[in-house]
Amino acid sequence: MELQELKDKLASEKGTFEFSEGDEGVYIRNKRYDTKVHASYEAIAKHDWPAIKAVTVGGRDVSHITRVTGYFTIVEGWNKGKIGELRDRNRATIK
Length: 95
Fold this sequence. Notes:
Structural class: alpha+beta
Radius of gyration: 19 Å
Strand content: 25-35%
Strand order of the largest sheet: 1-2-3
Helix content: 25-40%
Shape: elongated
Number of helices: 4
């Protein structure tokens, strides 16, 4: 990935990322996960955007998935009422 390409990606997602350039690379802060990483110019040249973005997440980007009547769905897309129903459900442990 080119340095300017990385800067453009980070700038386009300024609600999520803050960055500053130093002598040895770019310092990236992911505001959503409150992680800070340093990407050297060498590392930027070797990796693409998805790989660099994954490092800034720090393993915290885990989707909550639930199974309701045989279907799996990601709950981040649900409205407040549906999330309330999820919290009210009874959970049972099956042995």
